[in-house]
Fold:
Amino acid sequence: MTVPATPLAEAAELADPWPVLAALRESGPVRRLDPRLRLPVWVVARYEDVLAALSDPRLSNDPHHAVALRSLLRGDFLSRSMIGTDPPEHTRLRRLVSKAFTARRVEALRPRVQQITDALLDRITPRGTAELVGEFALPLPITVIGELLGVPAADRERFRAWTDEVLDQPFDPQEDLARVTAARERMHGYLADLVQAKRARPADDLLTDLVEATDEGERLDAQELLAMTFLLLVAGYVTTVNLIGNGTLALLRSPDQLDRLRADPSLVPQAVEELLRFDGPVNPGLTRYAVEDLEIGGVTIPRGDVVLLAVAAADRDPDRFPDPDSLDVGAAGPGHLAFGHGVHYCLGAPLARLEGQIAFTQLLARLPDLALAVDEDALQWSAGGVLRGLKELPVTFTPTPVT
Ligand code: HEM
Structure:
């Protein structure tokens, strides 16, 4: 049987991917060919189904359950991270770092996040124009997570280039395996050097804590340590960039909501939740692997198959959110699935919220008359199958001198 290609990969690069997501939601779970994995995947897009699936132990986070992916994963140290494992391994790995990301620990970072945000905006405000992704949305979270882990500032640019290579998943296992393997090896070499440097010169940072946990006992082995470092560094910034970029554009497209937020900054925490729901970084969604046959929305998904839980579609489900395609910065409460759900619920959610809240508060306070500097059609989106974000966001505003 031929499986039709999923329109999702192309849709995520469109300014308006929502009609495609809505059609998938309305059709119920369907089997589609994923052009990135070159495999058939089941697309699940209704809120209720996605929510239930995210806490269903029959759907694993471990890609080794997908027979077709095993050869790709051989020797891949990255698949040893908490996001690619199930309990009990997952529980052990997550427990090692969860303390560093509690709401209380994250709150203590507020003054430093504020300082980094202010310093970035000081460079922008006197000019009247800026490219907000490269000059603000990206350097803010990469600096925060880099400092938290203890990655030297000088390495962050190189690290970013490798991340792009590693996250650029193979389109064709035959042709692209060598390129992807080389990128992973470069990343592995860099992380191993970084860990070695921490061992030689321990510091007051999260990476030193993890190195000590590895050296002291059996709690984390050497490969797991590298996988954990990679996951925290990457998950710590690639998503938040898109929260700030996509969110700013969403506000610019809804001037009434932008004005409302400017007039009442106490709405910012709610606005961040609404922006996560409305055009969150994870789009189309999260991948899972069926460990046994199971039924979702009346459809049987066989063991070993790949499932895409389209959280971006779920977060616009009219059965869950009234008027889901309108932005309402005063909308009550979270309930969205932008941070996932269940045991893998985003570990960094408190940090992402803190960064988002400070970023939007300061952007609105310090860039008066914020407007797009280019025609909306000229904006380009990048989509790698999991995340969707703007490549660049050129803006204009009324310049103000730094005091
Ligand atoms: C997991 C989204 C920021 C660290 C996740 C998951 C989602 C997500 C949807 C669940 C993955 C799954 O179920 O397979 C986001 C969004 C962010 C963000 C939208 C920003 C707006 C961060 C930050 C960190 C972080 C700042 C900091 C280190 C993690 C980690 C996991 C994770 C470690 C894996 C948790 C586990 O497997 O138990 N994130 N994230 N994230 N996130 Fe985030």
The CA atoms of residues 34 and 40 lie 6 Å apart. The longest helix spans residues 173-200. The chain has a mean pLDDT of 88. The chain has one domain: 11-375.
